[in-house]
Design brief:
With about 170 residues, this protein is mainly beta. It contains 3 helices and 8 strands; from the N terminus they run E-H-E-E-E-E-E-E-E-H-H.
Length: about 170
């Protein structure tokens, strides 16, 4: 029994019968569990793909286009929650005889772009996001070292506080 096609499954039977033909498609889906340590696609958020499919042979199709996905993460300096959108270009081959690490699998006359979308978005998430380029980090008043700053200073370093520089 075959499962019903998902939102990222695209029928390509007509393309495979007419080599060199192209077709534009737009797909979108909410994909969960796309995250790295510093950023993640919001669970339930729509990821959109706009692709041009072209039949290269009776068993291979190129997929070229743009993927857009919203993300959220923490600023690496001030730790505030920030949001953004990744928009990336892709150019990949789907083949009935896939080569590990080189092409994606083409399953009969259906093309499932979910693995492509997951891989591309995951690799495009920011590794060290910033809320703004000039972010100075946490506010000292909001993140005090201790209730009394003088208590936090090691007595062996206390003399450095008396130094004056011209």
């Amino acid at each position: 029994m075959t499962s019903a096609p998902g939102p990222l499954d695209i029928g390509v039977a007509e393309l495979l019968r007419r080599l060199g033909t192209q077709r534009e498609v737009t797909v979108s889906a909410a994909l969960d569990d796309i995250a790295i340590s510093s950023a993640a696609v919001v669970d339930g958020a729509e990821i959109e793909g706009r692709f041009v499919l072209e039949a290269m042979s009776d068993h291979a199709i190129t997929v070229k286009g743009t993927i857009t996905a919203p993300w959220t993460g923490e600023c690496r300096r001030c730790l505030r929650t920030i949001d953004g959108t990744v928009s990336l270009d892709v150019d990949e081959v789907f083949d009935a005889r896939p080569v590990e690490g080189e092409t994606y699998p083409l399953d009969g006359d259906r093309l499932n772009v979910e693995p492509l979308v997951r891989d591309a978005v995951l690799l495009s998430l920011p590794l060290a996001p910033l809320c703004e380029v000039a972010c100075a980090g946490p506010e000292p008043k909001e993140h005090p070292i201790g209730s009394d700053v003088s208590e936090a200073i090691d007595p062996r370093w206390a003399g450095l506080g008396d130094l004056k520089f011209d």
